Amino acid sequence: MAHRATLTQVAQRAGVSIASASRALNGLVASPATVDKVRRAADDLGYVPDASARALKMGATGQITFAVDDIGNPVYVEMMTGVQEVVAASGFRLQVTATGGTRDVADVLDLLRSMRRGYADGLVLSPLRVTAELVAEIAATPIPVVVIGRLPDGAGVDTVMTDSARGVALAVEHLHAQGRRRIAFLNGPGDTTPGAARRRGFDDAVAHLDVVASTHEAADFTMAAGREAAHRILTAAGRPVDAIVAANDLLAIGALHAAHDLGLDVPGRLAVTGVDDTSLAEIVHPPLTSVSLDSRRRGQLAAELLTRRIEDPTRAPQVLSVPPLLHVRGSSAPTPQAGNR
Amino acid sequence: MAHRATLTQVAQRAGVSIASASRALNGLVASPATVDKVRRAADDLGYVPDASARALKMGATGQITFAVDDIGNPVYVEMMTGVQEVVAASGFRLQVTATGGTRDVADVLDLLRSMRRGYADGLVLSPLRVTAELVAEIAATPIPVVVIGRLPDGAGVDTVMTDSARGVALAVEHLHAQGRRRIAFLNGPGDTTPGAARRRGFDDAVAHLDVVASTHEAADFTMAAGREAAHRILTAAGRPVDAIVAANDLLAIGALHAAHDLGLDVPGRLAVTGVDDTSLAEIVHPPLTSVSLDSRRRGQLAAELLTRRIEDPTRAPQVLSVPPLLHVRGSSAPTPQAGNR
DNA sequence: CCGGGCGCTGTAATCGTTTCCAGGAAGCGC
DNA sequence: GCGCTTCCTGGAAACGATTACAGCGCCCGG
Fold first, then answer.
1. Which one, A21, A144, B131, B134, has the greatest CB density within 10 A?
2. Domains in chain B, ordered, with CATH?
3. How far is the CA of B29 from the C1' of D4 (A)?
């Protein structure tokens, strides 16, 4: 807990003015002799420039904020990794803020408002729910914002999206090709952006296929909610479903558990697919077929958009998209009798 | 991207001096009339105080940094959650920095040095490896640091530890009580702090038990490394082991996979236990018996120590400890046919 | 020998806040 | 009416850095 040296002290010790000291340290015009003296003095004192003072003077903090709704979900961890990679490479520091639970949209508004204090030079945001208020607040934020997700058309904000509707369709088509004909869709809350998109994808996909389809909503994008909802699906009266398409990996894993609880063989009696292709997909048994939306890549792209916009705030807003990709694993294996486990 | 209003503008609009404006907004002495005028002006202009300027003047940023080695491990996510809870409640903002991969200790030193720039008012650190250099650098850091883990005695740093050696012993004793007698310890890198402690715990525990014990090291605290090492353990010549004690959940899950690859029934032929009791333990099948070190609680405690020290930097350094707790689940069920859960 | 240009330096202003200090206007008791 | 306290206010100095500007010495050509 030693005390910090200031530029004034360095200048004093080197016997020059603070202006010269600053110039010497920043590689601006200065005689070799001065540079040498100042360098030595700075080293002796262990001088490091103060971030707040520099930020105040320069009008830039060198920080970027990533706001995430639910740190518990590995998806966001992966996104964060992607963001961090790019952000660190550009010389920024990453600041992560958890905007509370999934239920509260007020939190993220608070965050946006607090950004006006100038904590960071840019913000990456991945909101679960998009309201008009949110869009307005983003527009009013004095620093560049990049959204991972989907905003209303013409929002004029840099965005990285993915076609998760198409992703769900990929899963449905895959299951259909494997001969599954009674497919249930296990969605998260329908009023969230991903919930709405994935439901649309499911509906569109089943519309032109000869399958018996049904849709169900879990209370949350969590494993517990998925397990509970899957129980309902699997114990409902009538002919049993032979496949569950879950809107995300956590829900899918909940479905795997429900199947196990009920003694249903996966993939023999029931196929299950997830979305996000998180690390969890390879951890469970049977390994989970899942649609990758490449969260890490989305994080990288978002960070790139952001750093580019910080450099040149006049750029036209850009919308990038990452295509979904189906990863087939054991949970949707073609034939029952392959019988792993 | 509207431009930001400054206190000067607010004061002008309210027709008072900036001193009065500042006082009015901060609830210091000011007449009701002034407060009213200033409030109104501030609202009109959408004024929010600038963080950098305030930080410069006050010498405090209102930020706390949490440095984590490996965001991929759910343990750290849980710790982060705990830290965030306390930190947010105290009015600080949390900044998370990933200090690269597990292999590089230089990173965390860089981070510590960069803290001297005054980015934050405090730092929570959970280092995987502790070197003399690290301890020295911590001592030289101008802001309070709290370490989650274990430092050399007398380091004089606030610390939150857990008795992970005892934790491993709990697992061993449990397995012994269930009748397991040929127990393998699946450790991560032995040169890490947790690796060393857990190995010690294992050695001590088996020393006074009638078991055949062996120790093995995986390259990393990851599932892939655990699977690979467990393969070696399970295919070694001689009488087969009937239990694997893994040094963490990821390794344990790797072992579950290896067992499955080899067609070994868990818990029938082989019991497996993990450490950390992460959310993954309940995701796998059979659910993993694991020793909880309550990462979230450790995060909370660390954050509390930190905020308290920030308030009063003269406090004597404190070392807190969280006791390990064994959570028995299916992967170590007593008898194959009991099949609980 | 003198003036212009060049290279380097120091003084001082500035970023947006907070806060010390001095001073003015009331209010009060006498 | 006078002195005192009380309350509020504005001016100005910080915090630690960057940087515009002016000034200094020196070299060089004419």
1. A21
2. 7-49 (no CATH), 63-160+295-322 (3.40.50.2300), 164-293 (3.40.50.2300)
3. 21
